[in-house]
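Researcher: Sequence recovery benchmark, item below. Answer with residues only.
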């Protein structure tokens, strides 16, 4: 989903991303790598859902990614 941010806000666009897949395949590793630029070899399984944000500039536009990491039991 792409949403144009409100005028005067801190970003131009907001993307809402839901990461789905089987348990233990690396969804949390992917979301943490993107949002914090780190990689951990070991993770505890996500319980319910985790939420992270990442801000970036793309083609001179300020973009906010809202990343939802699911537990893998959808």
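Model:
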């Amino acid at each position: 989903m792409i949403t144009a941010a409100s005028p005067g806000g801190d970003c131009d666009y907001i993307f809402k991303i839901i990461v789905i897949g089987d348990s233990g395949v690396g969804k949390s590793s992917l979301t943490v790598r993107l949002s914090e630029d780190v990689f951990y070899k070991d993770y505890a399984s996500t319980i319910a859902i985790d939420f992270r944000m990442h801000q970036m500039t793309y083609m001179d536009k300020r973009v906010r990614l809202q990343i939802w990491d699911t537990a893998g039991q959808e």
